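Operator note (shift B, R.M.): manual run for UDP-N-acetylglucosamine 2-epimerase requested after the automated queue skipped it. Running by hand, logging everything below so the morning shift can see what happened. Input copied straight from the record, untouched. If output looks odd, do not overwrite the archive copy; leave it for review.
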Amino acid sequence: MRIGILTSSRADFGIYQPLIDELILDEGLEIEIIAFGTHLSKYHGYTIQNIKNKYQNKIHEITSLVVNDDENSIATSYGMTVLKFADFWNLNTYDSVFCLGDRYEMAAAVQAGIPFGIKFNHIHGGETTLGATDNIYRHQISLASVNHFTSTKEYKNKVIELTESDENVYNVGALSLSGIEEFSPIRREDLLGKFNIEDKPYCLITFHPETNAFDRNKEYAVEMRKALEEISKKINLVITMPNADTMGSLYRKELLNAKENRSKTIFLVENFGKENYFSAMYHSEFMLGNTSSGIIEAASFKKFVVNVGDRQKGRAQSENIINSKFNASEIIKSVDTCIKKREYSGSNIYYKENIAQNIVRILKRI
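Run finished. Output pasted below as returned.
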């Protein structure tokens, strides 16, 4: 059986890894990785090299990303991705292809496969993020897919409602948490030394644009910087840089300004990679930002999270989340609350056992 894995960014590749590892173990499966999007962008860390370093499988490289991140450039990148994948699907056939999440370039690759009858398996369908256009792309991907692997029962029901069918919809849990109980973090000194981060208590941070709030992103980016500069007076900040989203450069600019203003307490990282990122999460005091990892993964590391704005609004949350408006004073107030809390002792609603193994088992059965 020939299996394709569509990966367009460092984020989805990190989530995929337990599944890829499990698929490779099965001698009856031929695995090919199809890399595109920011993986091929030097501006975003050229993470295709990380894939090549980790896997010896056949890797396809498809370049279609426009560097700029305004609305016209995003639409152009979408169109170019469709065109490139029209040629790719015409020349390459698979028994099954995995696609993940909700990014626009992932949606474009999937849309191009519809006329070819590609059998897509969608991971993380049915979720809701009201502050991002991801909702639209995610549902597009679900509608084009024949198999669905959701992270909660609620999202399974949403996919059934969306596709008007309960056939081949499975609630398996969040793939990134597969095998999390066996995760062994990199030693703190080694991790911080590798990325030139001072060995002091720190908060782990990731901010992305709210792509459903074009006219307010400049304001939000400034509010973010003001809050971070103030918070950095109380605790060190380790910040992962934004991925390729509409107006992401606004946030990059303000993060660079914050680093310049508070160079001794703010540390910027372009790309951690999954093992380093999970280790950074493990060693952090708490998390801050508007990324899905705070919602989905942090609870398994016993971390409280300050979730800012509406980008993740609508996602099911565990009890470790403190929600804040996208306002500097509100963010600072929520962080002060978070600093006073100790280790989170509750459960993670996204966790299930043997997630990757169950996906492979289901795939082979159907």
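Quick read of the result: The domain at 182-340 is CATH 3.40.50.2000 (Rossmann fold). The mean pLDDT is 93.
Leaving this for review. - R.M.
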